[in-house]
Amino acid sequence: MSKAIFYHAGCPVCVDAEQMVLDYLDKSKITPEVVHLGTDLNRIEEAEKVGVKSVPALVIGENVYHINFGASLTDVKG
After folding, report:
1. Would you tell me which CATH number, out of the four given (3.40.50.360, 2.60.120.10, 3.40.20.10, 3.40.30.10), belongs to the domain 2-77?
2. Thioredoxin-like fold domain: from which residue to which, for each copy (predicted)?
3. Could you read off the pLDDT tens digit of each residue along the chain, which spans 78 residues?
């Protein structure tokens, strides 16, 4: 089973995207994980290493899907 990581920062755009995207994922094929970078700051470096440039973003395998620009990772680092 593949893992899908949804990175976000808690903004309204991110929360809306999280609800929509996770509802559409086939949970029989994908194990979803949600990472709130606003509260889990130690995961920002991980997100950068896999290619996340802005949030919300969905990572499945080596593919990064940026969804409706909410905030850059630079903004999240604050």
Report:
1. 3.40.30.10
2. 5-65
3. 889 999 999 888 888 889 999 999 999 999 999 999 989 999 999 999 999 999 999 999 999 999 987 789 888 887
